[in-house]
Design brief:
InterPro entries: HotDog_dom_sf (IPR029069). By secondary structure, the protein is an alpha+beta fold. It folds into two domains: 2-179, Thiol Ester Dehydrase, Chain A, CATH 3.10.129.10; 188-311, no CATH class. The protein is built from six helices and nine strands, in the order ββααββββααβαββα. The longest helix is centred in the first third of the chain and has 17 residues, at 30-46. The termini are far apart.
């Protein structure tokens, strides 16, 4: 179900959650939130939200169903430069119950800002039982930065005028738009320097302790894993696609929690299967840095703690 609101937002609802949960444990995690948000936003756009020509959006649905593809009308393409997901519940629930088929979600999306070559979207995702939509609870939030680029030069370009005008019109409808969360870019240089620092330290150079799970032995605070890239992992923009990247990071975290030479197993309570360890991840950020060179065959994931104060004592 789709509707648009007077404040320029879009609302989708009456969509079951269970098809979007991981098969490993059938529970809602950050990847579920990502899939729900993307599905909801795509559903809204297919029904004309953010479209400079709603009639054309309807036509595209018909063409897509009958012809299988749509013509490219210009050389401008878009990509998700930044994504942030955060589950509303700070602490996960480890139990044997999966996601019931009667659990549904609704989502509301706002344009949070419009720049020269980029715009932002803020979304709230809610959950509710069938027939109880008025008794919904916040499942999580979603923030997105979309950038327009030239498919020829691979450089950012201005948002096409009709589309930009439509986005700004939606933004102007929302009197509280300035208070909407905006995704800030990650300080990549600082993170790279930090990861180099962590990687350079040997196991004997520090004692590691997590406040809630104190330990007395030296353990590594970094976990590293490589993944071979397949053609399907890279999209037409020459980026490792978001779904593949998230899954590689989640799989790295699961393997880290199973690695007794690191501190990561201390994060998981006794008796909880490592396949459920992704439920510990309550907030997730992705920031685009640059394209993947055509001769690169692997993606490396390095996990480390960002706050030195929690893990290092000299």
């Amino acid at each position: 179900m789709f509707s648009d609101r007077d404040d320029g937002s879009a609302v989708v609802s009456h969509i079951p959650i269970s098809p979007f949960v991981p098969l490993q444990h059938n529970k809602v995690d950050v990847t579920t939130l990502n899939r729900l948000a993307n599905f909801g936003m795509r559903f809204a756009r297919e029904h004309g939200w953010c479209s400079c020509n709603p009639a054309r959006a309807t036509l595209h649905q018909a063409e897509g169903a009958s012809g299988g593809q749509l013509p490219i009308v210009d050389d401008v393409t878009v990509f998700f430069a930044g994504v942030e997901l955060e589950l509303a519940e700070a602490v996960p629930t480890f139990d044997k119950q999966g996601t019931a088929a009667s659990l549904f979600f609704s989502a509301q999306f706002w344009v949070s800002y419009v720049g020269t070559s980029s715009y932002g979207v803020h979304g709230k995702i809610y959950k509710y039982k069938a027939g109880e939509e008025n008794d919904r609870a916040l499942l999580g939030t979603f923030n997105l930065v979309v950038v327009s680029v030239s498919s020829v030069t691979r450089r950012p370009v201005a948002i096409p005028v009709p589309h930009g005008e439509t986005m700004r019109a939606l933004l102007e409808k929302n009197k509280t738009a300035s208070s909407l969360p905006r995704l800030q870019r990650i300080d990549v240089k600082q993170l790279v320097e930090h990861s180099d620092l962590v990687a350079a330290r040997s196991q004997e150079e520090f004692q590691c302790s997590i406040p809630t799970h104190p330990i007395n032995v030296s353990q590594k605070v970094m976990h590293y894993r490589e993944f071979q890239l397949r053609e399907t992992d890279i999209d037409f923009n020459r980026h490792v696609n978001q779904v593949a990247a998230i899954q590689m990071i989640i799989n790295t975290f699961r393997s880290a929690v199973a690695d007794d030479t690191t501190v990561f197993p201390q994060l998981l309570d006794d008796g909880v299967d490592t396949l459920e360890s992704d439920l510990l991840i309550r907030r997730f950020r992705i920031d685009y840095v640059k394209e993947i060179p055509a001769d690169h065959a692997a993606l490396a994931v390095m996990l480390f703690f960002q706050d030195d104060a929690l893990i290092f004592s000299k």
